[in-house]
Design brief:
This protein is mainly α. The protein has a single domain, classed as Up-down Bundle (Growth Hormone, Chain: A), CATH 1.20.1250.20. The protein contains 18 helices and no strands. The two termini are 30 Å apart.
Length: 430
Amino acid sequence: MKWLVLGMLFILYVLNFADKSVLGLAADHVISDLNLSFEQFGIAGSSFYWFYAVGSILIASLSLKFGTKRLIIFIAGGWTVSLLSAYFVNSLTGLIVIRVLLGFFEGGTLALCMAHIAKWFIAGARGTANAILLSGATFGAYLTAPILVKMLSSLGWQHTFAALGVGSLAWLIIFVFFKEEPKVKLESNVATSEEQPKVSFGELLKIMVTPYFISILISFFSVMWIISWVVVWGPTYLTKIVGLTPDRMGIAFATIGISAAIISIIVGKFADNLFAKTKSTFKSYITVAVGAMVIAAISFTATTFVTSPILAILFLGLGITMNNCIAPFTSSVVSSMVQPSQVGSILGFKTGFGSLAGIIAPLLTGFLVDIAGNDIRAGFNYGVFVSVGLFVLSAAFLYFSAKKVQVTKYKETIGDQEKVTPETPIADNM
């Protein structure tokens, strides 16, 4: 049953990112139809995240009272309404309104889905489960691209938006018949009050202000920066800069999506195996996440120098793939810091913080492209360099803050031992 639940959440995440990416794929249609500039389109793309943080924190925080299943159904209903409202859009203002509404309801998706997964999968298997869930992002943003491009060409952008709304409604109806949680709770989620005391908001706040947690927030900010850039400007980059036709752009997106999804799941399983062997998040999830950030930074930098379309797609795809590998690991680490009942709230805060990147990245890119004038490529490259800088800084901060926690726990463990020799292995369980 747990795999059916994960499968449904995967489909939901596919729809989630298809909804996000459809605006970027429809860029030429929308800009032409509504007579927008690059900067105005950037504002429309950014507007999705204006209330994303509010939805993330507010909706996810209600999971303790109403349960994750009910709230997931609630947000899917919100998507349906916002997408069907595309028929009423005839100006920039109208486009902003429906994107703000969609962003609010999609804000809590990640936190709710991961909190729901925590009810069905034990801690040691959540890295793989989360990677499968988040691979839905690559399927939704990339694998659906050829289909959405065809729909945009034949049906128009408003009908395409509405079709996605109908898909959300169909998913909602099916998910109603699923259970909230297993009949027998997972052993790792069952505890007495002595084993798992309730965590107050003050105690959660103490966790959220530690350098370690802040470094994870910054890492996720970098991830969301790339995601929002790709969703809003990726299709335009491939057509205007790389030189692909809309149909080939759709195929390129699909290829990137398939590769990214497969590799991210493999890397997720690899990190889970490392954790099983070492019992250390630093030697598994953190190390892999930092490595992914470094590779992503190198790959995105390479896209600004190559002129071959094949190499541009290759490096862009590798960067996107590594970016998709980061979020599952940092989320797994965050969820291990608190009790299962607090996972939704703390991940909601994490997602809310990351949404700030979604607000800034599309706006900044649109601004840089506009001020670059006729040299559109230079404008896009400036935006890429900002992304690279974020990855380098967040990788360094995450590595050293996690390393400090590891050293601290090592010293605490030594203090608890009556005799520790250099050969005595001491595992850290951050």
